[in-house]
């Protein structure tokens, strides 16, 4: 799954070039963008993130233990809201964030092209599948969310693919997120539009698909019986099942949509030493384990299993549609057109 433009070959940093040949289970690069630490990390670090609050609460004690001299401040909101705040600060020339950790791969690629990120390859990134890191060392995934099919038990037979949602078999009984307001729904829409064209949106509309808003709304509509099937984040499904929800995961035969949640270090940070140390903790085995156990998301560390008994990252990537450079370009340059196409289909 070549994670976006991560497949660019130009300007590879020396240490990450090793990833082109193999996955390195443990290694400590001696040079390149892994800057030498100048004293113990200390001071304030601001992280703008869409990670769930309860995951941040779980990460706080670990960060205090590993980095006692660093005060980590979170600005937590949905990816779209974080992006809006960031853009306003960039326009004003006053970016407060040291690190960005949201779930919008297209935003990271754009910011990277605009030179917003400093290059930094954490030693812990060397364990990560090469398809999940930017080989120019401007950002790397720290967590993986996954869009899957969901089906309420005891109703109509479950759909087997995203494509089937638009064929009429579940007429009026399908709930999807709104790509105009939900970043994860937008990424899913980019994949579906690239594979099935604008006709996919038209088919959804003609067969009465319910545009529910965000993932929480989709879950509510399927759980309540307003819909029998839907498209939802795996982490939401697993958490719902754990509390007894009558829904089940269906892995789509046309491939799940994995949405990497990267972290990037802003070039404007006034405290790069501490910011890099925080990034290292997020990618550490302890940090990755918290992301799995508290967030029900997949870690990028292949040594860890997936959430609630699911297989780990390698098996996940085999179940997923690949990120390609062409798809990244489509999301970057035609995102507005895709949203407009969706809007046209559902306004008829």
TrEMBL record:
Q: Which domain of life is it from?
A: Bacteria
Which UniProt keywords are given for this protein, alphabetically ordered? Signal
Any signal peptide, and if so, which residues?
A: 1-27
Per UniProt, what is one Pfam family of this protein? SBP_bac_11
Q: Does the keyword DNA-binding apply?
A: no
Q: Does the keyword Signal apply?
A: yes
Q: What is this protein called?
A: ABC transporter substrate-binding protein
Lineage of the species this protein comes from: Bacteria, Pseudomonadati, Myxococcota, Myxococcia, Myxococcales
């Amino acid at each position: 799954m070549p994670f976006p433009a991560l497949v660019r070959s130009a300007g590879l940093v020396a240490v990450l070039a090793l990833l082109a040949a193999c996955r390195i289970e443990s290694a400590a690069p001696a040079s390149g963008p892994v800057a030498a630490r100048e004293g113990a990390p200390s001071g304030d670090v601001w992280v703008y993130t869409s990670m769930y609050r309860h995951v941040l609460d779980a990460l706080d004690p670990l960060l205090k233990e590993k980095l006692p001299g660093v005060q980590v401040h979170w600005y937590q909101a949905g990816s779209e809201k974080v992006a809006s705040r960031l853009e306003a600060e960039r326009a004003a020339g006053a970016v407060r964030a040291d690190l960005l950790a949201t779930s919008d791969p297209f935003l990271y690629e754009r910011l990277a092209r605009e030179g917003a990120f400093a290059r930094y390859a954490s030693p812990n990134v060397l364990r990560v599948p090469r398809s999940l890191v930017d080989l120019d060392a401007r950002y790397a995934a720290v967590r993986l969310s996954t869009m899957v099919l969901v089906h309420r038990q005891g109703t109509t037979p479950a759909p087997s693919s995203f494509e089937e949602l638009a064929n009429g078999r579940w007429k009026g009984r399908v709930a999807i997120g709104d790509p105009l307001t939900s970043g994860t729904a937008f990424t899913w829409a980019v994949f579906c539009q690239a594979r099935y064209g604008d006709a996919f949106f038209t088919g959804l509309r003609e067969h009465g698909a319910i545009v529910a808003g965000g993932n929480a709304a989709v879950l509510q509509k399927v759980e309540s019986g307003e819909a029998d099937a839907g498209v939802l984040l795996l982490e939401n499904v697993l958490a719902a099942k754990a509390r007894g929800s009558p829904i089940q995961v269906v892995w789509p035969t046309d491939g799940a949509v994995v949405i990497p949640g990267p972290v990037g270090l802003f070039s404007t940070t006034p405290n790069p030493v501490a910011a890099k140390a925080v990034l290292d903790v997020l990618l550490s085995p302890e940090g990755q384990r918290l992301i799995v156990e508290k967030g029900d998301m997949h870690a990028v560390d292949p040594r860890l299993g997936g959430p609630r008994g699911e297989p780990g990252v390698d098996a996940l990537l085999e179940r997923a549609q690949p990120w390609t450079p062409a798809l990244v370009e489509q999301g970057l340059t035609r995102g507005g057109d895709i949203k407009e196409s969706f809007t046209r289909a559902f306004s008829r």
